[in-house]
Amino acid sequence: xxxxxxxxFWDGQARELSWFxxxxxVLKWNEPFAQWFAGGQLNASYNCLDIHVKNDRKNKxxxxxxxxxxxxxxxxxxxxxxxxxxxxxVLKKRGVKKGDVVxxxxxxxxxxxxxxxxxxxxxxxxxxxxxxxxxQALQERIEDTKANVVITAxxxxxxxxxIDLKTLVDNAVNNVQAVASVIVIxxxxxxxxxxxxxxxxxxxxxxxxxxxxxxxxVESTHPLFILYTSGTTGKPKCIVHQAGGVLLExxxxxxxxxxxxxxxxxxxxxxxxxxxxxWLASGLSVGSTLILYDGSPFHENGRILWRIVEQEGITxxxxxxxxxxxxxxxxxxxKTEFNTSSIKTVLSTGSTLLPENFDFVxxxxxxxxxxxxxxxxxxxxxxxxxxxxxxxxxxxxxQCRSLGLDxxxxxxxxxxxxxxxxxx
Length: 424
Fold this sequence. Notes:
Blueprint: H1 3-14, E1 25-29, E2 34-38, E3 41-42, H2 44-54, E4 61-67, E5 72-76, H3 77-93, E6 101-105, H4 110-121, E7 125-128, H5 135-145, E8 149-153, E9 155-158, E10 161-164, H6 165-173, E11 181-185, E12 199-201, H7 202-206, E13 218-219, E14 223-228, E15 238-242, H8 243-257, E16 265-268, H9 275-281, E17 289-294, H10 299-302, H11 304-312, E18 316-319, H12 321-329, H13 334-337, E19 345-348, H14 355-364, E20 370-373, E21 375-377, E22 382-386, E23 400-401
């Protein structure tokens, strides 16, 4: 897709978003990079929250959260909106503004979504660091991004064990001078130790927070997220993603390729720190309900996720090939133990979906669903190839290229592959 057709497609997609200022031109060729939607201004937090609260979705469930230790919460769009505004106020009073970078070192809890959208609301840039990473890894990311605020929790739970996140943060932040504030979400009964003037308990700051903070308009090219590569080709590399492109690409992938709608219940098996976390969170822009699960997918002998499917009526279930293979090896056939009839789509990424994985999904989860193997990367925070609700599912194949992208498979000589030829 090139030239006028390319610009026409993306112009149409961009009009699905709420912009504060419309772009001057769809595509501006500036060397060495093209600039998309030059002059346009928007805010992802506004697109994920304000438009729904204003359009009578305020009482709809935005987030259903469960942890492996039995805790659960439901947050409506109205509550999430209020939490995000209060969090944004807390950050603003700590000096966070457009252009700053905030690190999130959090487990999979509703406050992680609120914190992310609060950072975005202020026009700042956020980077999520997986809470299972070491102090050294956290320190390196703080130094890379020059983050001046770190948001964390005092504890997390992993495989039934309590993890002291605050001590890990202290070990990292004590070696970095740039961090001015550490904001701690308290989950444990006993308050964590705090360094005076640097560490603040969020619920204490929240008492003085304003109830509304205006969403800051940012350019479509404004840095929105900072993600890191997995490190398979050396030290993890820092990748900056822009505000307009992320939201636009995600809405395209979610609405057109995944058929995500406002009445869907959307789950992806992920952790904060993997790109699929950002992808899942973008489901809020569609007005759907997100399911967050904090814990091991193999809790309750590998049945915890299917219990949630049955209880919450999940319609789009995202996972990975290794999990599906593990279920089959353990002899777990979800549809024989749980009601899985609500699922209309199963998504899988992270590794190649094997032919036997296709067989397992249709024999053991449901026969009347769309199984989409999706493939993308942290580098584009999206997919190169993924599903399509209008196309047939063929065993061991990805359904189609991502709309609006020029995607090719190349052989070892750097030439586009012919049909049936192996390549990358």
